[in-house]
Design brief:
By secondary structure, the chain is mainly beta. Helices cover 6% and strands 57% of the residues.
């Protein structure tokens, strides 16, 4: 079957290429406009007279009094742009792709610098808006479309970087430096939001709802702009996260020209539009997506025996003014469902799941307003008002083999909302130092009902999460900078609080070498399942609701060497000291550090500890002369200790992470490009609980030797992904045909083991095998 599929794809690619070749002589050379704006990183005021140079193209210009620049129409292709101005750190922005279907509109933020470098700092198109000097990756939308195995999802792309592993092929959960996926946080436009993923139960052992992951991100990559992914020792403005932060920013629509994008593939059908609104620089950007599996389900075709559907809508409206600042209105929403219905014929039941009916629904939405205003040359005021909500429900019915009568076996439902007001002021004093102060005030509401045959968690809670912060950035010497910050967190529901100092320093050893160090104390609220595990309905008693926040001290030491041809080599040492971890009074092995979607119906106290430490070594070559590479190795150890004093392996202690991503592009003609990329990931196996096989068979249900101890190490995980694509540009539009193959070698990687009632034995469940994803993208 797959051979026939690949033959068809190959013939389509050949036809696409022949068509492109036959039109080369008669079609005018495709070109497009490159323009943008250069602003100060701190004040966001225009940088006047900045020099803009297209490297290797002998083309340049300067910014006008409003900071704008235009290089006019340029031939399509890859470009590097160097931006420099007196008193600022020069930048060379790599991996810029100019296509005929869309103008290239850039926003370049220049950092003040007391030391004008001999060589420009090479960056990806995304800007570092966080101020972090260690443990940060800047992710661009173009990388999401170019790298293999991403499913057009920033979370899956993030697993290509050091220290990050995917929890399961079916989901985008991120295990960062040995921490549970529950330890990370999603942000949109600088504000924490609820889980922004479709099918939040995907890839879990119990098929229950997760806090931070899902099958695919609700926010389409078509809308994404700057994305910062932080993995440790966060700056002062980040709170309520232990392991990492995915900070998403939306790009602005084109304010001068209407543009459209249509994309079809296994992920779904995407339709996007952007353009100007009026004549004063306002713009719109909107995208709608409907899942391809949903279309199949509507025709009666199920994917893996399941009816999987999702759809989403996202938008970003931008309204600049001359005196009142810049306003944006943004929003996103998604619906998803997963239905598995047993065949009413017991002769076709092969595994335990075949005897169940399972219904899952997921609704998520977020909307907000941002406002930024420059008050003079030294002060920037930014405010965001946003709200987000998530509603999940899941019902599992076991069927009688006699008459297929259904019995409710599991029932889960949850509602979570976050409504946030945040405002901050950034004051620039001197030439190279600034102070940023701000506050987040979030009204958080949680409602939960979770029940299975052996445990229950239910309750409701609301309160304010108050987080003021301050960060002082100092240029101590021409080559030495420091950030000194303080973050405070208080949750009024149970009156828990945390005072968290943050500090980082960076020293420039030579023009192309830096050494950095960072420390931060971080905390995070508990999951609703933990708070409500012992709740008594209608009594006001919420069980473990008085639990304190879990805390972690992060220490990071980093060294980076930048090469002249757009590449760097980086080494980071990290150490995380975790404490205040909820543990069970009567079970010495249970720790919330091992949870993803599960919980325990026992009294808990903050007696537990954890230790994660290791080294990350990375090399990245930005796309230059048609070639790019990203390779990294992480060696780490993740353990936990409860009140019995015994140090145990954490569930996520895989010991090592190795990634290799390489890619090559060839210009087959002046308007046609062929590209390939390969990613190989090798992870150390995680730990799972040891099953008592004899007791499980005798009692006809799953029984562990020790219910909460993860003592069995799984086999190592290995997966190669491959992507091939062809881009063809006409005068007014461009097309991309791509084939993305996840797990091209079809390796069988273990997901978990369980006792199967139908087979009456222990069964290993495997992760996803070979999955081909053919897509077609049209921009005009």
């Amino acid at each position: 079957m797959f051979r026939r599929f690949f033959k068809i794809v190959f013939l389509v690619c050949i036809g696409f290429g022949v068509s492109a070749q036959s039109n080369t002589k008669t079609t005018p050379l495709a070109s497009q406009v490159i323009r943008g704006k250069v602003i100060d990183y701190v004040s966001e005021r225009a940088v006047v007279g900045a020099s803009i140079t297209l490297k290797d193209a002998r083309k340049g210009t300067q910014t006008d009094p409003e900071g704008n620049f235009s290089l006019g129409k340029m031939p399509i292709g890859r470009y590097q742009i160097q931006v420099s101005s007196v008193g600022y750190e020069s930048q060379t922005i790599s991996e810029l792709l100019l296509e005929s279907g869309k103008e290239m509109v850039l926003e370049v933020r220049l950092r003040p610098s007391a030391n004008q470098l001999a060589e420009a700092v090479v960056r990806a198109p995304s800007a570092n808006l966080s101020g972090a000097v260690t443990s940060i990756q800047n992710i661009s939308t173009e990388q999401i479309f170019r790298y293999p195995g991403t499913y057009l999802d920033p979370a899956r792309l993030a697993t290509a970087y050091a220290g990050v592993a995917n929890s399961n092929d079916q989901a985008n959960g991120m295990i960062i430096r040995g921490n549970s996926p529950n330890g990370m946080q999603w942000r949109l436009e600088g504000v924490e939001i609820v889980n922004p993923n479709h099918l939040s139960n995907a890839g879990t052992f119990s098929d229950r709802i997760t806090q931070n992951s899902g099958g695919v991100n609700i926010l389409s990559a078509q809308l994404l702009g700057n994305m910062n992914f932080l993995t440790g020792a966060f700056p002062a403005e980040y709170g309520n996260a232990l392991s990492g932060v995915m900070d998403l920013r939306l790009r602005k629509g084109n304010d001068k020209k209407h543009e459209f994008t249509a994309q079809a593939g296994l992920i779904g059908i995407d339709l996007a539009a952007e353009g100007p609104m009026g004549k004063k620089g306002a713009s719109y950007l909107v995208n709608y997506r409907y899942s391809f599996t949903g279309l199949l389900a509507a025709m009666g075709v199920k994917f893996g025996g399941e009816d999987i559907r999702f759809q989403d809508l996202s938008f970003n409206l931008n309204f600049p003014t001359k005196k009142a600042g810049n306003f944006t209105i943004f929003g996103m929403g998604g619906l998803s469902s997963n239905v598995f219905e047993a065949v009413r014929d017991t002769t076709q039941w092969l595994v335990q799941k075949d005897g169940f009916d399972i219904y899952f629904k997921n609704k998520m939405g977020a909307a907000g307003l941002t406002h930024s205003l420059s008050l003079g040359k030294k002060l920037l005021w930014r405010t965001v008002v946003a709200t987000s909500g998530l509603k999940n429900s899941r019902e599992g019915y076991v069927l009688s083999k006699v008459n297929f009568q259904r019995f409710l076996n599991q029932a889960d439902s949850s509602i979570k909302t976050k409504s946030t007001f945040t405002t901050n002021l950034t004051y620039k004093f001197g030439e190279y130092s600034n102070l940023k102060v701000g506050v987040f005030v979030t009204r958080q509401y949680d409602e939960l009902f979770a029940r299975s045959t052996d445990k229950k968690s239910s309750g409701a809670a609301q309160g304010l999460v108050i987080q003021p912060y301050a960060n002082l950035h100092l240029s101590l010497l021409p080559k030495l900078t420091a950030n000194i910050g303080l973050h405070y967190l208080k949750y009024t529901f149970n009156q828990t609080k945390s005072i968290e100092p943050r500090v980082s320093v960076q020293y420039q050893i030579t023009n192309n070498q830096t050494i950095s160090a960072a420390y931060g104390l971080h905390s995070q609220l508990q999951q609703p399942e933990i708070y409500f595990a012992l709740a008594t309905p209608n009594s006001g008693f919420l069980g473990n609701a008085t639990l304190d926040v879990t805390k972690s001290r992060h220490y990071v030491l980093s060294h980076q060497y930048s090469f002249k041809k757009g590449s760097y080599f980086k080494t980071e040492l990290f150490y995380q000291q975790i404490f205040n971890v909820p543990t069970a009074l009567f079970n010495p092995t249970f720790s919330t550090l091992n949870l993803i979607e599960d919980y325990t119906p026992e009294p808990l106290q903050n007696f537990g500890k954890g230790r994660n430490y290791g080294v990350e070594i990375s090399y990245q070559q930005y796309l230059t002369n048609g070639f790019y590479a990203l390779t990294n190795a992480t060696l780490y150890n993740a353990t936990y200790t409860n009140h019995d004093g015994i140090e145990r392996n954490s569930r996520f202690n895989g010991k090592h992470i190795f990634n290799l991503t390489i890619g090559k592009e060839w210009s087959r003609s002046k308007d046609r490009t062929l590209g390939t990329s390969l990613r190989v990931v090798w992870l150390g196996g995680f730990y799972e609980r040891e099953i008592n096989q004899q007791a499980s068979i005798e009692n006809k249900r799953l029984i562990y030797k020790n219910a909460d101890a993860f003592t069995v190490k799984q086999a190592d995980y290995f997966r190669p992904d491959f992507r091939i694509y062809m881009k063809k540009s006409k005068e007014k539009y461009s097309r991309t045909l791509a084939l993305d193959i996840q797990n091209v070698a079809n390796y069988q990687n273990v997901s978990y083991s369980y006792y199967d009632i139908l087979q009456n034995k222990i069964v290993q469940q495997y992760q996803m095998g070979l999955i081909p994803i053919l897509s077609y993208r049209w921009e005009f």
